[in-house]
What does this fold into?
Amino acid sequence: MKVLTITTDYLPKIGGISSHIYYLNRNLARIGVEPHVLHIVENSTEDKYEISFDEFHVHKLYISDNLIGMKKLKYRNVIKKILIEHFSDVDIIHTHELFNTEYLVDYSNYKWVWTNHTSRFNEFVNETGFKSRVKQIIERNQLKHADRVVCVSKFVENNTVSFFSRKKEVAVIPNGIELERFDSIDRKYLNEYSRKLNLPKNKTVVLIVARWFPVKGIHIAIDAMNILKERYPSKFERLHFVFAGAGDSDVDYRKAQEKRISEFRNYTMLDLVTKEDMPFLYNCGDIVLIPSLYESAPVALLEAMGSKRIVLAAKVGGLQYNLKDGVTGFFFERANAVDLVEKLLNIESCDQIDAIRKHAFEEVCNKYTWDQVARQTKSIYDSVL
It folds into this structure.
């Protein structure tokens, strides 16, 4: 079985979709599927095409343009030529994005699986106004050509079924984690990595792994820092915040939040963190904070649980299905910096931390390994052939 994934969101970008595509295809290869990834690299310095191999083939199409708006349509012929030249025998095309790669192929000629990850979809389906309604009609008409739709959480499934008014072809397969990378790490390199970050040893490290978009709620975390500084200065001094995010971003939003962060002293800013270093980054933290306004099923949650870190997350979207408050982590109310502060301070005095770490790790072991995800995905592929 030959499967081609077409995407603009791929490593080294930090994000749920890029990691999902990499580890899914890696594990599909291990169970007999022949996976290929076509990564469209936008805004490149030159137009070129390269092929590499890392347990599966990665084809990179570098374009000096981007796929925003109607621009994506002019690349349909480019993709068509690539399909004819390299993938004439492909069995299935798999896409994972919204508003771009689903328009690059005439899917009437192919079996097509679309995975719905994005929290943006959950906003999109609830938008009102004439332009939004037109865009919803266009998107619905395009996505209805998918032979199967996969959702990464029950929360995403609910919105997807409502949007399409169909249930039969929609399945839930969660994100996964390559557990051994986070559980069995090189302690020597961890010490070297920790020294490189130069994080304080006598403080509680709060880690925020997110791209710089308003929906990720980084501004809520900064609001909480302000509250801590003003109301609990001595406790605030015992905390150190690490912001790690790279890849696509809202430039204006990022600049505004970085300016706010610069007013503090107890923080570290990281840009690109490689997939190889992510387990070490998590192990340098004590608490992983997920302040998102919307989330489908964040990989960061599973990675934190697999690293036996304490998770404090906004009670939104798919997080409500993946995290059990007081059992595998903690919730705070959406967009509520005051509640975030209260829950953060409660964690420091909680006497059940070790038990919560243990339960969270067991949850990941039982439900969220990439081998399980790959086998469930292969069953979807089998069902459309």
Notes: The mean pLDDT is 93. The first strand starts at residue 2 and ends at 7.
